[in-house]
Amino acid sequence: MNHNGLKALKENLAPEIWTEDQERIAPWLSEWRDKFFGTTPLMVMPRTTQEVAAAVKICAAHKLAILPQGGNTGLVGGSTPQDEVLFSLRKMNRLRDVSAPDQLLIAEAGMTLQAVQDAARGAGLKFPLSLAAQGSCTIGGNLSTNAGGVHVIKYGSAKSLCLGVEAVLADGSIYSDLSRLRKDNTGYDLSRLFLGAEGTLGIITAASLRLVPKPAGILRALVALDGPDAALTLLGRAQGAALAMFEVMPRSALDLVIKYIPDQRDPFDAPHPYYALVDWELSRDDDEARAPYMALLGAALEGGLARDVVIAQSETQAAQLLSLRENMSAAQKHDGGSIKHDISVAVSDVPEFLSRADKLLETMVPDCRPVGFGHMGDGNIHYNVARPVNMNSVTFLSKWDDVQRAVHDLVTDMGGSISAEHGIGTMKKDELHMRADPVKLALMGKVKSALDPDNIMNPRIMI
Ligand SMILES: Cc1cc2nc3c(=O)[nH]c(=O)nc-3n(C[C@H](O)[C@H](O)[C@H](O)COP(=O)(O)OP(=O)(O)OC[C@H]3O[C@@H](n4cnc5c(N)ncnc54)[C@H](O)[C@@H]3O)c2cc1C
């Protein structure tokens, strides 16, 4: 432990912005899935960019390792410190600016995603990043992990919604690019270096974010189907500028939500093997605007592609349908051990991936229960494997590395990605280094050592 560095932090920072009280720190040392547990001698809680910069300067002078943390909802071990100084950004939660004519807002890194969405709504616009952890995750974390969520199919991931960032670099200097511009070709787009960097290149303290017009209405439907092939056919028919969400879930996932999450119910009269949750955003909230999508769903029913359809008739019903999908991860947590994969393949390869992965798992762990759900419209499946009912969690989870390796081999064989939206963290670091293009890894190493020569920024994460 670097006692001089810690002493310098405590002596030079305002007492309100640091704590070594382990009881106060404890909630931030383990993450949502209870998979990672950490330690830290000190938590720094800066309120301004200048306070972040001052604290980083001290760490740099003493070569003290830093781990930035937002909402601590990341799922790959990247937000759990192992003796690094924990920099919590949650107090940096001010809205610096919102401009309807420019369709942008400037948010500090610690604003929750939900607060950013609310601020956009307040300006009559929409911030279209949306994911189940939005009440807790922060915009700094979203950008650092290049979060995806349910609207990527129309609006792209966090990266595509960011116009520029303000970040504190490893030497404590402040890089400021809170752009209000839509076009700017003056040199390297350095802000993008920090997007998806998982805190390894600097600490994002604020960001300029692109807003979009609020749709006049949404047509949300839950479509019951035979399986992934039918879902892919439906996706092909549903595609178009209005399609804003296309999520899939097998019956086994719905069963878990209904079993474990209060107030959730099956909206259909009978069970079905597979479901797609679809949103079309409408430019007018009237029957004429809804007509083409109603006709598409009617034809899917008549032609036998869809087994049944529920169309949300109110905002409350729309929220109920979405909550079935959003509670899928939470329900699996209640079900005991589950081995997770966040993978992507080409959209048209999703059914083949699911079929090959299910067969693979059946030979590796007979009677395990694969639950592959998620963002089919982006080719991104959360392929989670639940333990056989007769196997205890500890025995099952001891197979994590073997199962993960086999699923990732399949993904690699299909030209896919082993991390679609959750990032690398510590969990997938070995897998990244084993599989990534050596030229890419070497370039990442050069960027890292150029920006952080003493390797103090999230030193164990990603690279
Ligand atoms: C129920 C649930 C559902 C989820 N659904 C999705 C989903 O649909 N799509 C998706 O993409 N993710 C999803 N996630 C994962 C998670 O919500 C995202 O990764 C989110 O972007 C993390 O934000 P955070 O503020 O919690 O970051 P944290 O967990 O605190 O940190 C994540 C990483 O970013 C770094 N970091 C955090 N803040 C900063 C900063 N200001 N500057 C530099 N580095 C920083 C950390 O060091 C860490 O490496 C889900 C998580 C849960 C629990």
Write the layout of secondary structure elements.
Blueprint: H1 3-12, E1 18-19, H2 22-25, E2 43-44, H3 49-61, E3 66-69, E4 85-88, E5 95-99, E6 104-108, H4 113-122, E7 125-126, H5 139-144, H6 152-155, E8 162-168, E9 174-176, H7 191-194, E10 203-210, E11 212-213, E12 217-225, H8 228-238, E13 243-250, H9 251-260, E14 274-282, H10 287-302, E15 308-311, H11 315-326, H12 328-334, E16 338-339, E17 342-344, H13 350-364, E18 369-375, E19 380-386, H14 393-397, H15 400-413, H16 429-435, H17 438-451
Parallel strand pairs: 2-4, 3-4
Antiparallel strand pairs: 1-2, 5-6, 6-10, 7-11, 8-9, 8-10, 12-14, 12-15, 13-14, 16-19, 17-19, 18-19
Helix pairs in contact: 1-3, 9-12, 13-15
Bound molecules: flavin-adenine dinucleotide.
Residues 32, 67-75, 78-79, 89, 109, 131-133, 137-138, 140-142, 144-145, 147-149, 198-199, 203-204, 329, 421-422, 458, 461 line the site of flavin-adenine dinucleotide.
